[in-house]
Here is the input.
Amino acid sequence: SVNIDCISNIQFFSNSSLDSIEALLLNNSKQLTYQWGQLDLDNPNTINSLICLNDVDVCVGIDNSIVYYNTKKQIDDIEIIHNGCINNISEGIIDNYNFNSEVNENIIEEGAIKLGLDLQGGMYIQLELDVAQLILNKLNRSENDMRQLIYNVDQNNIDFFESFRQACSEKNIRLTQKFPQYKALDDNEVIQRLKDDRDQALNSAIKVLRNRIDEFGVSEPIIQRFGENRIVVELAGVQDKDRARELIKRTASLELSLVLSTERVNNAIVKIDKYLLSNKIDGNLFANYFEPALFELFGELGVSIGKEDEFERLLEKLETSADIKLDGRFILSNESQEGLSFPSPDNESNSISIGAYTPVYYVSNTPAIVGGMVKDPMAKIAGPGSDNSGQWVINLSMNREGARKWSSFTGRNIGKRVAIVLDNKVFMAPQINSKISGGQTQISGLENANEAQDIANVLSAGELDAPVKIVEERSVSPSLGKDSIESGRNALMYAFISILIFILFYYRVSGLIANISLFLNIIFILSLLSILGATLTLPGIAGLILTIGIAIDSNVIIFERIKEEIGFGKNAISAVRSGYKRAFITIMDANITTLIAAFVLANIGSGPIKGFAITLSIGIMCSMFTAIFITRTFYMIILQNKKNELSI
Here is the structure.
């Protein structure tokens, strides 16, 4: 626990210009956490007689004493956690930390080569766009027959559009009538327009996902299209995999909809039960899913814990059925409630028990506000005096259209409840007490700061045109990545040393020249990888090792040509010139053919294959330069005075 009296008057200051720093947070464990973040940072050299040393970049002052400072430049983030009071202050400057603390520093190494997923650890996720839902979103809600057809096609076929076209043709459904917004001449044109919408939705999803992940803090994520309906996401170095997974798959579909009256709830339940009985569906009445005492006593709906998935599957069937039409829809809450037990109003000696349940709301099919009308979502802790004081909430503002509709909606429905629905889950359903004219509202019921910030981020990044589902996921632990780096480094070192020894032994002084050019070749390759911002993967290390062999192969061709020229009786300088001239075409042809193959791999392949191809391409170009120009320059320098002596 933290003694609040020990941590008053906290200050941040520095000698150099810094972008920002986050204010003090008191987390659920009652620990203090400082992190880089959103608030502006003043930049004085002295605060309240505290002096930040000239060679110090960042200082943290508590109670007029410096308790931490850092002299390393280019700090990515600092996290300080402590659970005690400050003591043993000596001359106002403390070299390390005078309290129980943990400090994590990530130093940005400017110009360092970025490591791929297989070396750094992280997540590989393959997402699939819900094409069926994308098409359903473009249909009128009354088109129940089409909804059932699309549902059947989606369940039973891989090539969705071809199967969809055939199913419509068999039932004599004209797509030009079902999708009048396209103004198409025939059904084939409608299918093509739907495919174009699919492509646009994928491109939009890639952009939205990139914005979300950038806010999440993962550096250099790889997000690219894969096939017709899929997206590949690679998050190197990510630690909180569950949080990243939830952040990616959220649709960020926000709605503010009216909660319908108890009378309309009863009518909907009766209508659904009649439909289930007449069609012999599910074998269970719809009313049986709800806690009976909860509805009778409080007029609230709740599904028993453990039945939520079954309940949602039934709702999905009802939504796609053409035989039942409702004026609203049932939506589960995002969090469950504990069970209740209280005396019976008829007989106090008896008690009524209600098991743990998840609340259900019956809301209007026509939302009052949708996500596109919301702007500037901000996660924060609710201030004192509010119902959610001390809890994380998200404040929402609305654009002009949203503010106008919100004002009209709240004015017409005073005394009723409005459900705030995010990704088909109700986060809260407050009562409207008065007309709200400012275009403001708030989301509460959030578990923690991470959930609040993530939801604010996805709302800010934008809504996906259609849901995405995770179809493949792989994780690479940092320890496995570290082992891969070590194995790759050892393989590179052994290959490098073996070649150096062999070439030096076989070609003597010429071998020494080849070894120097090989050193330069490795330096050039790594420098170009850094300058171009390329990502080094494990196959990339394999490409680097292969490049060493290619570089030496070029030198071997040149040396053997020089030997042949010397055998013909030429002097050293003439032999070198002729040898390079004769070897040039052979080396060029061999490397160009390899470059063509690498170019094809880089453009068609993805992930590890692309990393291998890029490293190989850079290595080939560098090896050509070092073998043809660097070694020749060394020969010219050596033979300038010794024209007839050549050790080869």
Remarks:
- The longest helix spans residues 478-531.
- Confidence is low (pLDDT under 50) at residues 1-57, 62-109.
- The chain is about 45% helix and 20% strand.
